[in-house]
Amino acid sequence: MTTQEVANRLVELCRQGQIEAAQTELYANDCSSLEPENSPMGNVNGLPAIIDKSRHFETMIEEFHSATISDPLVAGNCFSISWLMDVTMKGMGRTAMDEICVYHVKDGKIVCEQFFY
Fold first, then answer.
1. What is the mean pLDDT of residues 72-91?
2. Which end of the chain is more exposed for a tag (fewer CB within 10 A), N or C?
3. Does residue 30 have a pLDDT over 90?
4. Are 89 and 58 in contact (CB under 8 A)?
5. Element (H, E) at 15
């Protein structure tokens, strides 16, 4: 798959709420996930750790209200999307989470995801 095809497929699956399916299909086994410094989520390496991280994040959500995911912007072997979520976090109340997600693709698979918020 080209970077554009990977980007389009990721957005398609994420808009359908199929995050784990997207990770299983599109991520390399040795991919990495990078968060901003001091993030409670932390950085992880390897597909199983990324899936566990996503599952953990889901357990922190009390109620999911909506999400908006932009179309991807592709440059070379990288692409980015903006992702806005309206959620109620357990013990924290309702919040709008707005982030930029940057992905690096190699050999048709995502090898790194990095989040900015």
1. 97
2. C
3. yes
4. no
5. helix 3-15
The pLDDT score that the predictor gives to residue 76 is 98
d(CA 85, CA 103): 19
What are the Cα distances from residue 8, in Å, to 93, 102, 107?
32, 14, 16
What does pLDDT average to over the chain?
Answer: 96
Distance of CA 14 to CAs 26, 70, 83, 104, 110, Å? 12, 11, 10, 17, 14
Tell me, yes or no, if the pTM score tops 0.90.
yes
- Cα–Cα distance between 109 and 116 in angstroms, integer? 21
Can you give 39-76 as a three-state secondary structure string? CCCCCEECHHHHHHHHHHHHHCEEEEEEEEECCCEEEC
- Which residues are bridge partners to 106 per DSSP? 109
Residues of the chain with pLDDT > 90, as a percent, come to 94
